[in-house]
Design brief:
Layout (H helix, E strand, L loop, with lengths): L9 H11 L3 H17 L5 H8 L8 H19 L23 H14 L14 E3 L4 E5 L7 E5 H11 L23 H17 L1
Antiparallel strand pairs: 1-2, 2-3
Helix pairs in contact: 1-2, 2-4, 5-6
């Protein structure tokens, strides 16, 4: 009997959902990153991991590959009592701990967007301008970056405001919704994004 899609890492996906409260779609994406890395590894060693992650195919999503693999290492250790190697460049010691500056007004717009469209924060690093489509009414349509055929109705104003900061109001198809800095094509990774949002909400509650 043919193996169902993603069944090889189904337990890992379930663990991500339970341990990190990820959505099913995001857990599937993490598993796809791990699966791709496994297909490219001849041996699971730090040198091999460093080698494949330095290659061009991983360039645009390198931080997400690091995050996904390190979650897989954690899963194997806790659930299977199997120790796997990690890359020497650890996301947790570079990009996920790096501080990013996002203006308060942009964070307010992002929080409003998340609330109004009922979006999970974990989607934000994957959203690009090409995911948004103008429709003839008071809102826009946003395609889910992971699940084909799934769309959200989203308010126009916060998206325009966010891209005004991140892309100088002139985004191209691959412009991320929330870049690491204005005019960058690299999105803020999920862990630092959550920290930025959490700190902003705490500051708002104090004021």
């Amino acid at each position: 009997m043919p193996k169902r899609k993603s069944s090889d890492l189904a337990q890992f996906q379930n663990w991500l959902i339970e341990e990190y409260c990820l959505s099913k779609r995001t857990a599937t994406v993490y598993a796809s990153y791990v699966r791709k890395m496994l297909t490219k590894l001849s041996n699971v060693t730090t040198d091999q991991l460093d080698l494949i992650l330095a290659q061009e195919w991983a360039a645009q999503s390198r931080d997400m590959y690091y995050v996904a693999w390190n979650r897989f290492v954690e899963y194997m250790k806790k659930s299977k009592r199997v120790l796997l190697a990690s890359p020497s460049f650890k996301s947790g010691t570079r990009e996920s701990r790096k501080k990013y500056y996002v203006p308060s007004c942009v964070l307010d717009d992002l929080i409003f967007l998340l609330k109004e469209a009922k979006l999970k924060t974990s989607l934000i690093p994957f959203l690009k301008w090409e995911n948004f489509k103008r429709i003839p009414n008071s809102s826009w349509e946003m395609s889910d970056p992971h699940e084909s055929g799934l769309f959200y109705r989203v308010p126009i104003e916060p998206i325009v405001n966010i891209y005004e900061w991140g892309a100088n109001g002139m985004p191209t198809a691959k412009s991320p919704l929330l870049p690491i800095k204005p005019m960058s094509f690299e999105a803020i990774p999920i862990n630092p994004l959550r920290r930025v949002l959490r700190a902003h909400k705490q500051n708002r509650s104090r004021s």
